[in-house]
Design brief:
There is one protein chain. The protein has 452 residues and is of the alpha+beta class. The protein has three domains: 244 residues, HUPs (Rossmann fold); 77 residues, Uridine Diphospho-n-acetylenolpyruvylglucosamine Reductase, domain 3 (2-Layer Sandwich); 97 residues, no CATH class. Helix content is 44%, strand content 19%. The chain contains 18 helices and 19 strands. The strands form four sheets. Strands 3-2-1-4-6-5 form a six-stranded mixed beta sheet, sandwiched between helices. A five-stranded antiparallel beta sheet has the order 7-8-11-10-9. It has a five-stranded antiparallel beta sheet with strand order 12-15-16-17-18. Helix 5 links the parallel strand 2 and strand 3. Helix 4 packs across helix 8, helix 7 crosses helix 9 and helix 12 crosses helix 13. The longest helix has 32 residues. The two termini are 47 Å apart. 30% of the residues are buried.
């Protein structure tokens, strides 16, 4: 039954074999885009997100040729949104093609699609599921089939939402999100040119009917642009201009972090208010936004309203404290401290076996270098709820260097079944043996723009 439906669907695909592809869409240019990327050079396995649509099937066609030419391995990932009946047919088609090409393939499924805001929620769910799978397989690079038309449509939607400059540069050729390098080799290629490439190379693909469903804002924008070709070209140029501005602002943001932000080994940062007050408002907001995203491990920027409230908070001279984005911001004596909020990691727990390592709240790398011991890692604030632990802690409290209690609560505590305890940042321990087999390193979590 499945094969029969697949054949019927394939017959419905229009293939114009005499179509002329854009000269810029070829393997040579595809290779020229990928090969200068430093994070690709030393990686053997590259993931490719492939639905059965023309964009991703074209991406698969080019990726397959590039990978075999450069001795790389591809891992094809398809996401079943579980909304349309034929979506299973489509992902199984990609599975068959991947097998014929000699690549591994994985189907991920959206188990509980919502009834509202489906397109946006689908995008978030897809990225999260695929990134989690990539991390599980130790894959750090994901190729995506976004193209120039996607860029323009998203740009218009961001204009409607009154986005800031970052939002008006909605897609860039490569960025890091969910700890995965997302790469878009087709971002400067139009949808029309992708269709022509697919037809010229006899690439079979499926059309998603939701792309023509007028109830979606993106579809309405797409239809309008089809009737206004010149507008599409002008908007694409506008978006590229905003991307240049964003790159310029990114430079100044990173420069400020490099020279003016104090990183503490306990996982928080300090910023002198005077250094912020000298900057234009938009740059102050960008710096605060980045700091909160990094400290709070947020995937998306804060809303403009929250950022504006933060700006008012920063300009106050009196001592104030505010909670936002999983962080605590305190303005005291001219210094802004941004720390992790304990309630956000209260239930953060790990079991660390011998030879293993974990990343604690994306701020500390903790390794178990023992041969037989098992570590149990929890936040100090959680342990202090235990009366027995409180007694141990209070006996050693005099040795603690001055660290704000809100910060202390977020620090990791390492324990064993034998009753050994070690708090690395506070140098508190009841066993030199445990201390000798724990390796803790601070992570430079603000060194790039990452999800910013």
């Amino acid at each position: 039954m499945l094969r029969r439906e697949l054949k019927i669907e394939q017959k419905n695909i229009k293939l114009v074999l005499n179509a002329k592809p854009n000269k810029s869409l070829n393997l040579e240019n595809f290779s020229n885009f990928l090969e200068p990327l430093s994070f690709i050079k030393n990686k053997n396995t590259i993931a490719v997100a492939v639905s059965a649509g023309v964009d991703s099937m074209t991406l698969l066609h080019l990726s397959n040729a590039w990978a075999k030419k450069n001795n790389k391995r591809l891992y094809i990932i398809s996401y079943n949104h579980n909304i349309r009946q034929k979506s299973l047919i489509e992902v199984n088609y990609v599975k068959d093609i991947s097998k014929k090409l000699g690549w591994k393939h994985k189907i991920l499924k959206w188990e509980n699609p919502p009834k509202k805001n489906i397109l946006e929620e689908a995008r978030k769910a897809r990225y999260l599921a695929i990134s989690n799978f990539c991390k599980k397989e130790n894959i750090e690079i994901l190729l995506l089939g976004h193209h120039a038309d996607d860029l323009v449509e998203t740009f218009i939607m961001r204009v409607f939402k009154k986005s800031r400059i970052d939002g008006l540069c909605p897609m860039i050729p490569n960025r890091k999100l969910f700890d995965i390098n997302l790469v878009r080799p087709l971002l400067r290629i139009s949808k029309k040119d992708i269709y022509n490439y697919a037809k010229f190379n006899n690439i079979k693909f499926f059309e998603d009917p939701s792309n023509k469903n007028y109830k979606y804002l993106r579809t309405q924008i797409r239809m309008y642009l089809e009737k206004n070709k010149d507008l599409k070209s002008k908007l694409l140029k506008s978006s590229r201009l905003f991307c240049k501005l964003r790159k310029y602002f990114d430079y100044h943001t990173i420069n400020f972090f490099d020279k003016k932000v104090i990183f503490k080994e306990e996982g928080y940062i300090l910023i002198e208010r005077d250094n912020l007050s000298k900057l234009p408002d938009f740059l102050v907001l960008r710096i605060l936004n980045k700091a909160i995203m990094d400290i709070g491990n947020n995937l998306y920027p804060l809303r403009s309203s929250k950022l504006n409230n933060l700006k008012k908070f920063i300009l106050k001279k009196s001592n104030t404290k505010i909670s936002v984005g999983g962080c605590l911001l305190e303005n005291q004596s001219g210094t802004i401290s941004i720390t992790r909020e304990f309630n956000q990691i209260k239930n953060l727990e790990f079991i660390l076996k011998e030879g293993e390592s974990i990343l604690w709240d994306k701020k500390f790398s903790i390794s178990n270098t023992s041969k037989k011991m098992v570590f149990f890692i929890t936040p100090l604030g959680k342990e202090l709820e235990n009366i027995d632990f409180q007694g141990f802690y209070n006996l050693n409290k005099k040795n603690i260097k001055k660290i704000n209690f809100e910060i202390r609560k977020t620090l990791p505590v390492i324990k064993t079944l034998e009753g050994y305890i070690y708090i690395p940042h506070l140098n508190i321990y009841n066993s030199i043996k445990l201390k000798s087999v724990v390796n803790l390193k601070s992570i430079d979590y603000c060194n790039t723009l990452g999800n910013f």
